[in-house]
Amino acid sequence: DSGVTQTPKHLITATGQRVTLRCSPRSGDLSVYWYQQSLDQGLQFLIQYYNGEERAKGNILERFSAQQFPDLHSELNLSSLELGDSALYFCASSDLGSSDTQYFGPGTRLTVL
Amino acid sequence: GENVEQHPSTLSVQEGDSAVIKCTYSDSASNYFPWYKQELGKRPQLIIDIRSNVGEKKDQRIAVTLNKTAKHFSLHITETQPEDSAVYFCAASKGGGSNYKLTFGKGTLLTVNP
Questions:
Q1: Which chain B residues are closer than 8 Å to A102 by Cβ?
Q2: Inter-chain contact B98–A103, Cβ cutoff 8 Å?
Q3: Residue B91's closest CA among B27, B34, B9?
């Protein structure tokens, strides 16, 4: 158990819908990262937040957005869902004050039908 | 941006043999290189990492080597066991400025045959 939690574990929805994925980092970690894992694209970085502020953006679609709240949990919002958005979404956290090591949560499996 | 190439994509060994997975990276500013093990449907788990000021690091049966000049790093697993079977990912990060995003290789499916 990495100490990073994600909900829900599984999500099945239809095209065009909107979903929210939630992540709670390890206690004390200020930085949260979101990654998407699909069979064809592998593990891809989406976005990073540090202490409530966006710090880096990767290959994140405009239909996707994220935020980090004062209690440091983060949410990834996916809208106008397409079949190709079906993937595993992982959240990771790190304590940049002492280490850049990232610990991954269990992931949310999103299926778009 | 950074690009990480990983080889081989699949690797099959007999129990007790050694396994080696190799990665190359493109950005010479990268300075942190972790390796993750992922079992089917599970989260990536950090197994070992190395920073650019170190050439080699070992943890029991696992070792990682880094060649900064050639921009490649390798994972070595000795005395493999069936429970080592999983997908292994290498990654690279530049660090600095609170930006430590990881760029991953495509993964290596390791199968250890009893």
A1: 34, 46, 100, 102
A2: no
A3: B34
Q: Which of these, B54, B16, B61, B17, lies nearest to B37 by C-alpha position?
A: B61
Neighbours of B57 (CB within 10 A): 15
Measured CA to CA, the distance from residue A70 to residue A68 in angstroms comes to 7
B100 touches chain A (CB under 8 A): yes
For residues B86 and B108, give the distance between their C-alpha atoms in angstroms, rounded to a whole number.
8
Mean pLDDT of chain B: 93
Count of pairs with CB atoms under 8 A, one residue in A, one in B: 58
Sign of the CA dihedral with B89 first, then B34, A107, and A112 last: negative
B1 to chain A, minimum CA–CA distance in Å? Answer: 10
Torsion on CA atoms A73, A78, A83, A86, rounded to nearest 10: -10
A39-86 pLDDT per residue, tens: 877 899 999 998 999 988 998 999 999 999 999 999 999 999 999 999
